[in-house]
TrEMBL record:
Residues 205-215 have a biased composition (Polar residues). This is OprF. GO terms for molecular function: calcium ion binding. The keyword Membrane applies. Keywords: Membrane. It comes from the Bacteria. PROSITE patterns: OMPA_2 (PS51123). Residues 190-222 are annotated as: Disordered. It holds the Pfam family OprF. The keyword tRNA-binding does not apply.
Amino acid sequence: ALRADDGKNVKGANTALDALYHFNNPGDMIRPYVSAGFSDQSIDQNGSNGRNRSTFANVGGGAKLYFTENFYARAGVEAQYNIDQGDTEWAPSVGIGVNFGGGSKPAAAPVPAPAEVCSDSDNDGVCDNVDKCPDTPANVTVDADGCPAVAEVVRVELDVKFDFDKSVVKPNSYGDIKNLADFMKQYPSTTTTVEGHTTSRRKTATTWGGDTPTSEGAKADS
């Protein structure tokens, strides 16, 4: 309560609702702000009848100084326009405050552990602790053990039939020839050796050779 010039006690209440807009970013130490809102002031003086009420429109600005994430001190000034009487008052203010509510900070993403770099003295891509051939020469293809890769030898037997003294492949051999041709297309870097044999009925002058009628027949069907 306040005491007026005539010695009478003056009691009053002021209720305000303001909205604040902050600048800078959450977590910054200093955050300026602007505010706007309305307030209601009610004054009661002993010895008078009724209460004196006034409604104000408020605009202002200031700054907050944060000591912790939520605890701060505030200083600002506010212009209060008395809607009922048509005059304006200026009200400086200082204070402290605490923010509450809102969500918690998102958890920081875990930092992945740095990939372990192993020692590879011969630079073959296999770590020394599992390299069974640690002195492999450069530019040599190695297997999972770090040793020179051994080419795999695949043996395929084809039973290709020809009529006696003919170069026409019988239809029941087409499938086997096609399978071999597909394999050669799938692995073009492989080396393929084709062998063939004649029967004892063949004449000596026409035994198997590189360009005999039978080999020409196999080429045509593959």
